[in-house]
Specification:
The protein is an alpha+beta fold. It folds into three domains: 5-41 and 416-504, no CATH class; 45-172 and 399-405, 2-Layer Sandwich (Bacterial polysaccharide co-polymerase-like); 203-329, no CATH class. The chain has helices at 8-18, 20-40, 59-62, 75-83, 86-93, 106-119, 139-196, 202-238, 250-270, 276-297, 315-394, 418-443, 450-457, 471-504, and strands at 45-54, 120-124, 129-136, 243-244, 312-313, 400-405. It is rod-shaped. Mean pLDDT is 78; it is low at 57-73 and 300-310.
Length: 507
């Protein structure tokens, strides 16, 4: 049954008075134990190297877009991972300038690496700074190891940047050579395809077929025109007699001259005066006019009667015959041209069928060539950038680490010191009896206050009788209290004496 919190201070004081000697020995034991811990507590010494991240090099803006400087992201975590890697810690653990003596065995090397890893820390020190700390019990070891860690970190980061840039360049160069070989192979496939298939492209075949169709349409129009002309000449020649009878009248000559003049006018609309048909027609017209004049000058009685078969050749009939022959010859020529154009168009259609059958393969080769060419050109640019980046890292340009503050020899320990143990010993020694009794009272099942019965069990308490001490018990208690104060004074005096002796270097 727990005692009420309000009754704990009074009960603790009552128990302290009851167990004076126990409380004194608890005070003395705890105080001197804490003081003794201050004597044997190992002091920790810390040394630190401050690293500056230099990302404002003048090369960076000058080479913007032409080279890629190796970036350093999450600088503190990156530095911590690098320093705790086995590569650096193993080099440090095997350094004979820091760890004197013979070469360590594998077990000793592993123990050193584990100790170095546990005592190493990396802390941020601003936007572009971070510190590499090493804490150990030896001042010289803290100084040497922290200094060496800074040097190893700078070397390792520089080597890593150079390695990354070189690996990037070698990888891109390998890809460039690979795509160059692929591009050469595709170009060879294209060359072989074009040499085996000389039909040309679909665009060329379509243009040729369109040209042939246009020529064929024009030829068909010419054929229709010639057919019409042939029909017209046939109808005209059927209405003209092959011969002319002599002794014709004035009206007959007039009709023939009028017909010849109309034909001459028609020919002049189409041809020049030097055209053979025009020259022949003019000569025939002149001959008719002469015949009409002779006929008019001769007496009508002198004109002999001619039989129907005794006439002269009709020049109109002859001219129509010549024109009809020419028209039929031209029609035959146009039909021959139409037939040739049809054959050429059939060949072009067969060519288009072959082109369509090879179109898929040609498109695939063209697509492969374009894709490989684009990737190859892009990789060439990237390779040149990688080359410049690699030379930047080799020359130590771009983003770099450098030591801003070298390691300092530690003159004072870090963490808890002897004065802190001395002060904590007195404080904890004085607090220990009260704290122990307060805990014991909470665990003690005995009833010490009326509230425990009333609140805990619900039994009413009529009256509580206080403890009564006899005069002898009071005198004995006062004597014990006096002795307790004397011993407490002696203990504190000895405690302070030990502290002063420690400070003066006596102990």
């Amino acid at each position: 049954m727990a005692i009420p919190l309000a009754q704990i201070p009074a009960e603790v004081l009552r128990e302290i008075r009851k167990y004076k000697w126990t409380a004194f020995f608890t005070f003395a034991l705890v105080s001197f134990l804490v003081l003794g811990a201050g004597f044997i507590w190992p002091y920790q010494y810390r040394s630190e190297v401050v690293i500056f991240v230099d990302d404002s090099n003048i090369i960076r803006p000058l080479m913007e877009g032409q080279a890629v400087t190796t970036e350093i992201s999450e600088r503190t975590s990156t530095a911590r991972e690098m320093l705790q890697s086995r590569l650096i810690l193993e080099r440090l653990a095997s350094d004979m300038d820091i760890f004197s003596g013979p070469a360590p065995s594998p077990e000793q090397l592993e123990a050193r690496i584990a100790k170095l890893r546990s005592q190493l820390s990396v802390v941020p020190r601003g936007e572009n700074y971070f510190g590499i700390r090493y804490t150990t019990t030896s001042q010289m070891d803290a100084f040497r190891i922290s200094q060496r860690l800074g040097q190893l970190f700078i070397e390792q980061s520089r080597d890593r940047k150079r390695k990354e840039s070189r690996n990037a360049y070698e990888f891109i160069d390998k890809q460039v050579k690979s795509y160059e070989a692929q591009l050469t192979s595709v170009e060879q496939r294209m060359k072989e395809f074009l040499s085996d298939n000389r039909d040309g492209t679909e665009q060329e075949a379509n243009a040729r077929m369109a040209s042939l169709r246009a020529d064929l349409e024009l030829a068909e129009l010419d054929r229709k025109e010639l057919e019409t002309r042939v029909s017209s000449l046939v109808s005209q020649i059927q209405g003209v007699r092959p011969t002319l009878a002599q002794g014709q009248t004035e009206d007959a000559f007039r009709e023939r001259i009028k017909s010849m003049e109309e034909r001459l006018d028609s020919l002049r609309l189409q041809y020049h005066d030097t055209y053979p048909d025009i020259i022949i027609t003019r000569e025939q017209l002149a001959e008719l006019r002469k015949q009409r004049e002779r006929a008019n000058n001769e007496p009508a009685t002198e004109i002999p009667e001619r039989s129907e078969g005794g006439g002269i050749p009709n020049p109109v009939y002859q001219e129509l015959g010549v024109s009809l022959s020419n028209a039929r010859a031209n029609l035959a020529s146009v039909e021959t041209r139409i037939s040739s154009l049809g054959e050429l168009l059939d060949r072009q259609e067969e060519r288009m069928v072959r082109i369509q059958s090879n179109k898929a393969e040609f498109s695939e080769i063209t697509r492969d060539m374009e894709v490989n060419k684009q990737i190859y050109d892009d990789l060439l640019k990237r390779r040149e950038k990688a080359r410049v980046s690699m030379h930047l890292d080799i020359e130590g340009q771009g983003m770099n680490f450098r030591i801003a503050e070298v390691a300092q020899y530690p003159t004072s320990p870090q963490g808890a010191k002897f004065p802190m143990f001395a002060f904590a010993g007195l404080f904890l020694g004085a607090l220990a009896p009260f704290g122990a009794l307060a805990g014991i009272l909470q665990l003690d099942p005995r009833v010490r206050a009326r509230e425990q019965l009333e609140d805990g069990i619900g039994l009413p308490v009529l009256v509580d009788i206080p403890a009564v001490r006899t005069p002898y018990e009071k005198r004995s208690s006062r004597k014990q209290t006096l002795f307790i104060f004397i011993f407490v004074f002696l203990a504190i005096t000895g405690y302070v004496g030990i502290i002063v002796a420690k400070h003066m270097g006596v102990v």
